[in-house]
Specification:
There is one protein chain. The protein is an alpha/beta fold. Helix content is 41%, strand content 13%. Strand 7 and strand 8 form a beta hairpin. Helix 1 crosses helix 7, helix 3 runs parallel beside helix 5 and helix 4 runs antiparallel to helix 5.
Length: 253
């Protein structure tokens, strides 16, 4: 239901979480067109100057469910389905941890990061399947969550439900979209709801990302710049012309 966009400039991070996001973190999924949009956005920006090294940040939960499925079949000695899988809090914590790691690795490759999902979404899926979110999973979705600029929430309306044997039923999509918007708002994250056709969502997402990137690439003096002064006891080295000043708290009047 959401994707994430990240910008890393110099030593600072600016992440934009964008793209619709298919709620596909923990194995069963709720399709809203997120992966389709996130993939298209990565392809779009890979053709743009400066973003040739951009990489798609996939949903680790999808890989994890395949691993859990194989382990369960090996343990039981017979074919198994989604209902046979046993989910534990440590599974969701592992998914959230790895999702953050994939996101940070992508940020080292390119200053713009677009992710299919994230650790915050993993928190909500744990709540969905286990009734609550464990402290460790919550840590990766809050304190350890990489900084981002915006979430692109993909509206489930108008997106046909695709049954693939793992996704939750069509009835859960509206509830999960509501949970996600509620949690993003409560935590103070920036987000936009993308509706309409894929092309309409794509055009709006590109305009938004371009605008955010342009704003983040503009250098200007901070609001307090004209109020900064050096104390009278400041020592100045004539050889380097650099000011040696007391603690920064003494510089602002």
């Amino acid at each position: 239901m959401t994707s994430r966009i990240l910008q890393r400039m110099a030593s600072s991070e600016r992440r934009v979480y964008r793209g619709p996001y298919i709620r596909r973190d923990e194995g069963r999924h709720c399709a809203t067109g997120t992966t389709t949009l996130a993939t298209a956005l990565v392809d779009h920006y890979r053709r743009a100057a400066g973003f040739e090294s951009i990489v798609f940040v996939p949903e680790y939960g999808r890989q994890f469910i395949y691993e859990l499925h194989a382990e369960t079949e090996a343990a039981l000695g017979r074919p198994v389905g989604p209902a046979d899988l046993v989910w534990l809090p440590e599974h969701f914590a592992r998914i959230a941890r790895q999702q953050n790691a994939l996101e940070n690795a992508a940020a080292l490759a390119c200053p713009l990061v677009i992710a299919d999902t994230d650790a915050l979404a993993t928190e909500l899926w744990e709540r969905r399947y286990l009734g609550s979110t464990s402290p460790e999973t919550a840590l990766f979705g809050t304190t350890e969550l990489p900084r981002r600029d915006v979430y692109l929430v993909t509206d489930h309306a108008g997106v046909a439900f695709e049954k693939d044997g793992w996704r939750d039923g069509d009835h859960i999509r509206a509830q999960m979209t509501g949970w996600f918007i509620e949690e993003l708002t409560r935590r103070g994250h920036s987000w936009v709801l993308l509706s309409g056709s894929h092309d309409e969502r794509m055009r709006y997402a590109v305009r938004l990302i371009d605008a955010l990137w342009a704003r983040g690439s503009t250098f200007a003096s901070p609001d307090w710049a004209d109020r900064t002064r050096l104390p009278e006891n400041t020592e100045v080295s004539r050889s380097t012309r650099r000011a040696v000043v007391p603690p920064a708290t003494d510089l602002l009047s």
